Amino acid sequence: MGGDILSVQELKIQLDSVALFGLTKDYRAFILLPKSKKGYSGVGLYVRLPKPDDPPQVCQALTVVKAEEGITGRLKDSTKGVRYCDLPLSESIGGYIQGNELHEIGITEQELLSLDSEGRCSMVELANNTVVFSLYCPANSMGTADGQVFRLNFLEMMFRRSEKLRQRGKKVIVMGDINVSPDLIDSAESINELIKTKVIHNNLHEGGRDFERRNEDICLSFRSSTPHRSIFHRFVVPTLHAASRCPTQFLFRHHESFATAKARIVHSLEYDDECTSVQLWL
Question: Which residues belong to any copy of the Endonuclease/exonuclease/phosphatase domain (predicted)?
Fold first, then answer.
C-alpha cells in the first residue's frame, strides 16, 4: 500500500470478509464494522509494521500501544469485557466525555452507545504519544431529524474528545471523512444556487482567492450557515492567515505568511478539493 498509516472508510463488508480482503502482512489492521446494518459503513486503520532499518523515531511512531473501537469509549474491550471508559487510565486512551459535559451536550448514555453502533470510528495510540482516529462521520444524506441529531452528536463527541486528549498532552490526528464542507468555496451546489439567485458575484474564473475576497460577507456567513458547520468551525481554525472581522480564516490564504502566522495556529487542517477527506492535527 505504501503509506505508513492509512485510513479507509465505507468498507461495506461483513466479518467473514475481513480475513479475505481486510488484512495484509505488512500492516497491523484495526477494523470496525457495524453492530447493526450488516454490510453498511465500516472503517479501517492500517499501521505499517516497523522495518529493521527504520530510524528509532519512525519505529516509535509506528508502534501501537493501545487501540479502541468507537468514538465514545462506551463499547467494551473485547479481551477484558470492560467498557474502554471504565478501564484504568494506564490501559485506556482517555479523553472520554462524561458527567457534567454530557449534561451540557444533552446526550444520554444510550445515545452514546448508538453513536458507536454503525462502525464509524477506529483509533489507536502510538508510542510517541500520538492518538490517531480513523473516521467516517455521518452525513444525514436522507435529511431526517433523527439523522441530523445523530450527525451533530457524533461531530460534537469527536471534536470534544480530540480537544480533551490534546489538553492531556497527546498529539491528535484525525483521518478520514468528516463529511462537512467548511467554506462556500467547497460547496459547488451552494455556489450555483447563490449565482442563480444573484446573491454572489460570479468571478470564479479569476480563481478561489479572488472569489472569496469579492464575496467576503457571504463566505464568512457560510461558516455558520448550518449546525454541523458551526460545530466544525467552533473547534477548527482551517487556515493560517486571519481574515478581517473573523476569528477564523479564509482557505485561499492557507499557504501565505506561514513563518509569521504559525505561532497563532490553534489547529491546522488539510483536505482534498471536495473536502471529503480530512486530516486534522490538534
Answer: 4-187
